[in-house]
Amino acid sequence: MASLTPYTYIQCPCSDTSFSSSAAPTSDDKTEHEDDGRTFDPRAPRANYSLFPLEYLLYCEDCHQIRCPRCVTEEIVTYYCPSCLFEVPSSNLKTEGNRCTRSCFQCPICIGPLVVTSLEAPPDPTLLATDHAAQPTGPYVLTCSYCHWSSTEIGIQFDKPNGIYQQLTKVSNGGKPRLTAKAFKERSRREKDADPESLSSPLQNRDIDAELQFSQLKAFYQSQLNETNPQAAAGLGSLADLGISSPGSLSRIMSIYTGAGQGASHKQSRGRLPVMREARTLDEGFQEADLDDSAIIEKLRASTFEDTASAEQRLAQQTIPHHHYHHHHRAGRFVDDLRPVPHLLRTTRSKRCPACRHILTKPESKISNPRFRIRLIAGNYIPTITVRPFHTPESHNVPSGLRPPVPGELWLAPHRASHYVLRFENPIFEPVKVTLATPATTPGRFASTVTVLCPQFDISANTDMWDDALKDDGDVQRRRGEDGAPAQPEAGKIWERGRNWVSVIVEVVPASLRLDSLPPGPGGEEPDQSPLKEDEDVLEIPMFVRVEWEADTRDDMGSSTASRETREAREKRELAYWCVLGLGRIARE
Question: How many domains does the chain have?
C-alpha cells in the first residue's frame, strides 16, 4: 500500500445542523444541545461530504462564516457556447433549445470537435493572394481530426461553410430533405385530390419525424378546442398572458373543464357537453405502430461489431433537437444513423450566501474575460494550515498538496512518538489569536494519542514583507539552542515565528493495528474483530480551531459627522471550525 502526503481538510458547518460553529464545544455550557460537544469523527460516513481543501471554500463577509460548494446559492449569469464563445440570450432557450445553433458540432463517434472543410482540392497557396476566385466553393462537409469521421459517411453535404446548424436541420441521413409542415400539407392535398375517397393520407410513417408529428398533433387538438368550445379555446390561448392572480383566470380555467363558455346560460351548462375526438389519420398526427424489426435484424446480421452504435453514442443522439430516425423516432442502432451533435451550452454562475444573500463570487459579464468581479475565497480570511514531518528538510513554504509523497521510511511506527510541524499563516491585516483543541485519542477502533505542545498562540498581522527584515531574529536563535545544536520541542512554546505565520509542534503516538490488542468497548462489550478496512490505517486527527481578532467597525454615518471614537471603534470577531490533519499511514507490525 502506497504512502500519502500530509494533508489538511476543513469542515463546513452546513453539513451538521445540530452543531453550532460559532462557539467551541465546551462541557460547562449546559444550555446547548448535548450533541454540540461531541468530537468530530473524520471516519463517519457524513464526513466525506463535509471536508474540503481550503481552495474549495468561500467566505461570507456579512455572516463571517465558511461556505462550501454545497451550501451556496447559484444564479446563472450568461449562457454561452464553449466552442465559439457566443453568448446566447436566455429568451432563445425556449425556442432553440440548450444547444449551439451556429456551426459548432461534436463528432458522434469520439465527441471530438468537427470542422468545416471543402471536398475540393486545396488551392495553390501562391495564387490565394492574387486570385480570389481560387477560394474553395464547396460542397462542404464536417470532418473530425481525431477519428477522421466525416459527414459523407451518412450522406450529408453542405452548400455553404456557415450556418451549418440550419442546413443540417433541413436534411436527414442520406441527403434526403426533411419533410416540413408546409410541404406535408401540399403533398397530402395533392394525394387527396388524386384519390378523394381515401380517408387517410397514403404517406408512410417513415416520412414523418418527431417534430412534424408534434406540430400536426398540436394543430389538430387546437382545432378540436375551437370546434367544441371556442370561448374556452380562446381562454386557453390567453392564459399564458394572464397571471394566475388575474380575476378572469379562474373563470377561464373552469370553462375549459366544464365545457361551457363565459356567456353560456345555466341551462346550457347543464346540457350535454361536446366530446373531443382523438387523432385518426396521419394528417392529424396519428401514426400506426410499426413493430416489424426484420430489416434491422437482417442489417445487424450483415454488419460487424464496429458498425453498431454504443450506448453512449445513442444517448448523445437523443439530446439532438432536430433529428430524423426511422422506426418511430427511436435512436439509431448503427453508426450510419448517427448525426453530428451540437455543442451543449455552458453557463457562468454567480454564488450567494444562502443566509444573507451576500454575493460570494461574480464572474465578468463578457465570456472573453475569464476573471471574477467578486471572489471571496476563504484563503484570504482564515489562516492557512500546512503540516509536515518534524525531521524533514525545511519546506514549509511549499503547500502540502504539492510536496512529493512521504517515503516509506517515514511511515508511522506503532507505539513510537512522532512529531509534526503545524504552520499557521495569517492572511488578514489584523493580528489574530489562535486556540487549538484536539481529543486525547483519535476516534475509531485504533485510538492514537495526540498532544499539541502549544495549543494557544498569537499570529502577527499580514503587513509589508519588508517589515520582517527589520525585526530581530531572536525567536529563531532561541529555538536552535545556546550551543548551536537543534533544540527539542518544548511544551507551551511555539516552534518558529515569522512575519505573519507561526509553527507549533504536534506529538502523536500511533496505535497498533493488531486486532488482538484492541481494548474492550465502553460497556465492556467485545471489540470489533473484523478485518482492516480501506484506509483505516491512515492517521487522521480532528482539530478544533478558534480564531479571534479585532476588526474596524464600518459606521453608516459620514466621516464629517462621525466622532473620532466612533470611527476608531473596533469589534471583536471570532471564527471556529473543525479541521482534519492527515499525517500518514501506520505501519503494520
Answer: 2
**Strand-pair partners of 550:** 572
Using CA atoms, how far residue 354 sits from 15, 73, 290, 351, in Å, is 14, 6, 52, 9
Give the domain range for residue 449: 7-56+379-517+533-554+567-585
Do residues 12 and 89 both lie within one domain?
no
Comparing CA positions, the residue from 102, 11, 105, 104 lying closest to residue 51 is 11
DSSP state of 324: -
Q: Verify that 369 and 502 share a domain, yes or no.
A: no
Q: What angle, 0 to 180 degrees and rounded to 10, lies between the N-to-C axes of helices 210-228 and 181-194?
A: 70
Structural domain includes residue 455 = yes
Are 370 and 390 in a shared domain?
no
Neighbours of 282 (CB within 10 A): 21
| Contacts of residue 130, Cβ cutoff 8 Å, sequence gap at least 6 | none
Please state, in angstroms and rounded to a whole number, the distance separating the CA atoms of residues 105 and 344.
9
> Judging by beta carbons within 10 Å of its beta carbon (0-12, 13-18, 19+), is residue 63 exposed, middle or buried?
middle
- pTM of the entire predicted model: 0.69
Final residue before a domain boundary, out of 346, 376, 406: 376
Q: Cis omega (within 30 of 0) on the bond before 139? A: yes
What's the rounded Cα separation, in Å, for the pair 243 and 222? Answer: 21
In a domain, 51, yes or no: yes
What's phi and psi for 207, nearest 5 deg?
-85, -10
Residue position matching grid coordinates 474596524: 552
Answer with the residue of higher pLDDT: 518 or 15: 518
Angle formed at CA 343 by CA 342 and CA 345, multiple of 5 degrees: 125
On the question of pLDDT at 30 being above 50, the answer is no
Q: Where are the beta strands (DSSP E) in 89-167?
A: 105-106, 114-118, 140-144
Which pLDDT tens digit goes with each residue over 478-516? Answer: 455 555 556 778 888 889 998 899 999 999 998 888 887
- Which triple of cell numbers denotes residue 197? 375517397
